[in-house]
Design brief:
The chain has helices at residues 64-73, 143-148, 204-223, 227-242, 251-274, 278-291, 296-308, 312-325, 330-358, 361-402; strands at residues 7-9, 83-84, 91-97, 111-120, 125-135, 157-162, 184-194. It is an alpha+beta fold. It has a 6-stranded antiparallel beta sheet, with no helix packed on it. A hairpin with a 4-residue loop joins strand 4 (111-120) and strand 5. Helix 8 (312-325) runs antiparallel to helix 9 (330-358). The chain is elongated and about 130 Å long. The N and C termini lie far apart (110 Å).
Length: 403
């Protein structure tokens, strides 16, 4: 298949997410979307400098009274209380430097820019990004950032402790380098927050680029088995492709937007299948086929969904159509063979059930035949006996007449 979306969850025609390197791809239909496996890279070890008071040769220690006075005037990092963001101890935030006040906090949907430094709990720096921009709440970054930046004030500097669940999870990350199940320390400063551009006023080229970034983020979520987040990212990308533009758009740009929409729908169907959301996955496949009736990936997934719903006859019909378009596709062959066997077994089970419900038709037929035969013999015997009796009477009459 030539396009870049996936069939049943396998990578193809990858567009590498901004943070990944292309190293290989799985078979087209077997296991995923258009995802790229990320290469392992060497850890970038850059130990933080020790705190000033631990570096030696510092100021002479003040008396407890002076310490208390300083604490009242300038709270230190140690004296700041941690905010348990979710109440489970896995995501905590501490204000290091206050911002412009609660009214300056960004809102979900705004485009924010932050300075970010990410470290492991042993002090190893994972990455440092002086100007990281993303849409707040869209799942474009680590969940820890999406949840905590909206609690920050403009200009605020904060320290964030993020459990692995809200960072790179059980898989870890190769770029940036973070081991599996690693907790992170995030040093964040909120630099700016601006309202997102009205999609209707956005130039088509920017619209296509933005939708593609959201789709690629969805691919990253899919690769990490975060299927619900993947569906969310694909949904946002779809909204972008479907936005009515007030700006002049060329025929080529319209085709590119439609192609992006089809990719997002196909990828969304794959994620919905992983979540066992069969009706939603079926709707996504049907939407693809409305625009591209011969889209093999959509036909393949539609067949998979129908089979999972027990609609074997319709699933076989759909997969045969896909196979006709790609006769050499072994994955479709295998799926079709499996469904034909299941359909045959289902029909056999139904026939057995009907026989059990209606009784054994063979025995009933034999019994009916026997009963019919019995009645036939009885009538023949009766007819023969009657004939003999009539014959006897006639002979008696003849003899009597002669006498």
């Amino acid at each position: 298949m030539a396009d870049s979306e996936v069939v049943n969850g396998a990578a193809e025609n990858q567009e590498v997410p901004p943070s990944g390197n292309k190293s290989g791809r799985a078979s087209l239909l077997d296991s995923g979307e258009d995802f790229t496996m990320l290469d392992d890279v060497e850890d970038d070890v850059d130990d933080d400098l020790p705190p000033l008071e631990d570096a030696g040769g510092g100021k002479k220690k003040d008396s407890p009274a002076k310490d208390a006075t300083k604490a009242d005037q300038t709270p230190s990092i140690e004296q700041e209380e941690w905010l348990d963001v979710l109440g489970n101890g896995q995501l905590r935030k501490k204000v290091v430097e206050a911002g412009a006040g609660p009214d300056s906090r960004p809102q979900r949907g705004q485009n924010v820019t932050i300075h970010l430094k990410t470290s492991l709990t042993n002090g190893t720096v994972v990455e440092e990004l002086p100007n990281l921009s993303f849409t707040l709440g869209d799942g474009d970054v680590l969940q820890a950032l999406d949840l905590t930046v909206q609690l920050m004030e403009m200009g605020e500097k904060a320290l964030i402790e993020a459990g692995a669940k809200y960072a790179y999870g059980a898989l870890g990350s190769s770029t940036p380098a973070a081991p599996p199940d690693s907790d992170l320390i995030l040093e964040v400063q909120l630099l700016s927050a601006d309202d997102a551009t009205d999609l209707e006023l956005m130039p088509p080229s920017e619209q296509i680029s933005l939708a593609n970034r959201k789709r690629e983020r969805g691919n990253v979520h899919f690769q990490r088995a975060d299927y619900a987040f993947a569906v969310n990212s694909y949904g946002i990308a779809l909204q972008i492709t479907e936005a009515t533009s007030r700006v002049d758009i060329s025929q080529q740009e319209e085709e590119e937007l439609l192609d992006m929409k089809v990719k997002c729908l196909n990828n969304m169907a794959a994620a919905q299948l992983k979540l066992d959301h069969y009706e939603a996955a079926l709707r996504s496949c049907v939407s693809v086929l409305v625009h591209q009736p011969d889209n093999v990936k959509a036909l393949f997934r539609k067949g998979k969904v129908l089979a999972l719903q027990g609609e074997y006859a319709e699933a076989i019909k759909t997969l045969k159509r896909a196979l006709k378009l790609e006769p050499s596709n072994k994955t479709i062959h295998a799926e079709l063979s499996k469904l034909v066997k299941k359909h045959s077994e289902q029909k056999g089970a139904e026939q057995a059930m009907y026989k059990k419900m209606l009784g054994n038709p063979t025995n009933a037929s034999v019994q009916k035949h026997r009963a019919k035969s019995s009645w036939s013999l009885s009538w023949k015997w009766l007819f023969g006996a009657t004939a003999v009796a009539i014959g006897g009477v006639a002979l008696s009459v003849v003899i009597a007449a002669r006498n």
